[in-house]
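DATA CLASS: polypeptide
GOAL: derive structure tokens

***
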Amino acid sequence: MVNSINWFEIPVTDFNRAKAFYGALFGTEIQEMPHPEYKYGILPCDMQNGVGGAIVKGEGFEPSMAGSVIYLNGGDDLSGPLSRIEAAGGKVLLPKTAIGSNGFMAHFVDSEGNKVALHSMN
């Protein structure tokens, strides 16, 4: 096993708002994926070689500030995506914080009310 996580889903209530939020966060368009029961938007990832995830709207998917915290890739420097959070409708909870030799992290609330985090080495 290479990674403990291979896929994650972030619950959303307003799919278009969440799609715009995560598109602004990552600086790219979130691609919709057909699903028989849910609205599904794939976050940027290497589907063949890495961990991936999606935003999902549907029954049983409820945004939350409690529970597991997902750390999204902040790229070369998480300052870039972190600087776009509030303009996109989110709120920074913990600004860019050094975590020693493990780089930097930050926590935020997305447009849907989920507590999520970013990580980068710079």
Summary: Helices lie at 15-26, 79-84. The radius of gyration is 14 Å. The chain has one domain: 7-120. The domain at 7-120 is CATH 3.10.180.10 (2,3-Dihydroxybiphenyl 1,2-Dioxygenase; domain 1).
